[in-house]
Amino acid sequence: MIELTRLNGNPMVLNSDLIKTAEASPDTMLTLINGEKLIVREDTAEVVERVLAYRARLLANVARRLPTFGDVQQIAALASLDLSAQSTPPTSPEPRKPDPDNNVDA
Q1: Spatial distance between the Cα atoms of 94 and 52, rounded to a whole number of angstroms
Q2: CA distance 36 to 33
Q3: Are 23 and 40 in contact (CB under 8 A)?
Q4: What is the mean pLDDT of each run of 10 residues along the chain (106 residues)?
Q5: H runs (alpha helix) in 30-88
Q6: Rounded to whole angstroms, how far apart are CA atoms 14 and 4?
Q7: Model pTM?
Q8: Residue 105: predicted pLDDT
Q9: Which residues contact 67 (CB under 8 A, 6 or more apart)?
Q10: Which fold does the domain 2-64 belong to in CATH?
C-alpha cells in the first residue's frame, strides 16, 4: 500500500498492485485495473518511487524471514542424520527355487 494525496488534499492509501497506468496531463491520473480513475497531487515519478519503495520493503521483509544458507545446510544435515538412523540397508530377495513337482518356477 502506498500513501498518496487526492487533489482536494485528502490523503489516501492505495493498493499499488491495482495501478494499471499513471499519466501526467497535467495532473497525475491513475487508472486502476478495474477501470476506476484517480487524480493525485504527486507526479508520476513520485508514484513510481513510492511503488518501488513499497515493493522493496516487502521483499526485504520476506528476505529477513527466509533461512540463511547455513541454516539450510544444518537442516539438511539433520534430516540426513535422521533418515540414515531410521533406514535399514535393502535386502535382496532370496532366489526362487524350481518346483520339483511340475518343473515350473513358483
Answers
A1: 66
A2: 7
A3: no
A4: 96 97 94 97 97 94 82 79 54 65 58
A5: 44-65, 69-86
A6: 7
A7: 0.63
A8: 54
A9: 75
A10: OB fold (Dihydrolipoamide Acetyltransferase, E2P) (2.40.50)
CB-count exposure of residue 43 (10 Å: 0-12, 13-18, 19+): middle
8 A C-beta contact, residue 43 and residue 28:
yes
Domain range annotation of the chain:
2-64
Distance between CA atoms of residues 84 and 98, nearest Å: 37
Query: Which amino acid is located at 38 in the chain?
Result: L
**One-letter amino acid for residue 76 of the chain:** A
Residue 50 has, within 13 A of its CA and on its CB side, a CA count of 18
C-alpha cell at 70: 547455513
